[in-house]
Request: fold
Amino acid sequence: MKSHDELKKRNQIAELGGGKIRIDKQHSQGKLTARERINLILDENSFNETDKFITHKSSNFGLEKKVYLGDGVVTGWGEIENKKIFIFAQDFTVFGGSLASQHAKKIVKIMERAAETGCPIIGLNDSGGARIQEGIESLAGYADIFYRNTLYSGVVPQISLILGPCAGGAVYSPAITDFIIMVNKKSHMFITGPDVIKAVTREEVNKEDLGGALTHSTKSGVADLVANDEQEALNLCRKLLSYIPENNRKKAKKITTSDPLDRKNINLTTIVPDDNKKPYDMKDVIKSVADENIFFEIKEDFAKNILTGFIRLNGESIGVVGNQPKFLAGCLDIDSSTKAARFVRFCDAFNIPILTFVDVPGFLPGVRQEHNGIIRHGAKLLYAYSEATVPKITVITRKAYGGAYDVMSSKHIGADFNFAWPSSEIAVMGAEGAVNIIFRKDIIESENPEKLREELTRDYKTKFSGPWEAASLGFIDAVIEPQNTRKILCNSFEVLENKVVEPMFKKHGNLPL
Reply:
């Protein structure tokens, strides 16, 4: 009987974390505790905790007098929509959630179990960083986690939620994971804080501008999803998991939909303006073909000239990439290339078919783009598409010019089916630019340069700018009516369902990082 009482007592102590005062402080800041977060994100009563009674073994700087059961992190497994999940949640009420040797060992242990059993890993990060009192043991603990993040990348999905501070070495584990979710005004990520930056570079910046959710979702591209509060962040994670499989040997679960496979979208017949310089919203195209018109967008506010996210087609999870004519005319640039490349590689790693919508006039011109490496970064997207072996379907809605045509999942780099709308323009460049180069001398010497330019431009468009030349060469599998796009996509992905590509033997390629 005494043993049962002792267990009950220790459970109560462990579940109190750093104590009621610190829990109240956590709540006063609009933050939940580690266990509250776990209970909200997992299915009810599904959590199984591990290493609940682990404690640190350090006696440096009086730490032997400050011992907490669990050592500042809650670990275990549970379920989300009946899908097995391994999870850890740092407890800011204990040593500020700081990472030390035993704390790290708990995280490493559940990561190893997740990889062995083929289950996703969710990390709920809320930590002041390394526990300085433990010195290099804390750094070793971080490295142990980073190593496993890398080993299991592409094996099981890894999702990081930043629910408080995440600074210094702590940021590298989330950076290696597949997706990062942050909370506006509550989450912060940076290598060095405002005080250090001021001391070293004399720049003055607050932590929100330096590493808040808004900064990382609009400028750096570190954050994939941003929530207004913790509950929304946890819900976003659950929703994200619904589109992805448990591991790299499985496919995402197919769900039942009442949306007819052959539903026509008459709105798509007029969505592309007659004036090819006018913008339209590619999101409208994506939503029109998607089941229930739902598009779950990733990195919505970063590199807005390209769209990435998930839809369902006839219940199947599909990764979508699309040029966005509303921003920078849909040009590819450094940020958009990197954003799309990483998303394509994730989809390929986890057997999620890829759908690409193309309306791209080329790569963004400019000295800054060239000097900052548009060649290198653009090559990442080219590499990602070329390397991907999942089913790949491309729809050209309007412009597909130059090298950007090649890069955006063209037939030449391995797309399975390439379709084009009648409004598409597939060419080396726009008609006006091409005419000015090819017939420069004739135009200059003409008695009526403008009239000749117009005639030549019209002739060039007729010969080269439509989809017909590409279709005659087999680079386009079919020119389709826009309103039939959904039906054609659903049927095409279905026929590709059992696609198998045997890769060449190699250790790994050399991605142009």
User: Anything to note?
Assistant: The chain is about 40% helix and 15% strand. The longest helix spans residues 101-117. The chain has three domains: 2-241, 266-424+466-495, 430-465. The radius of gyration is 26 Å.
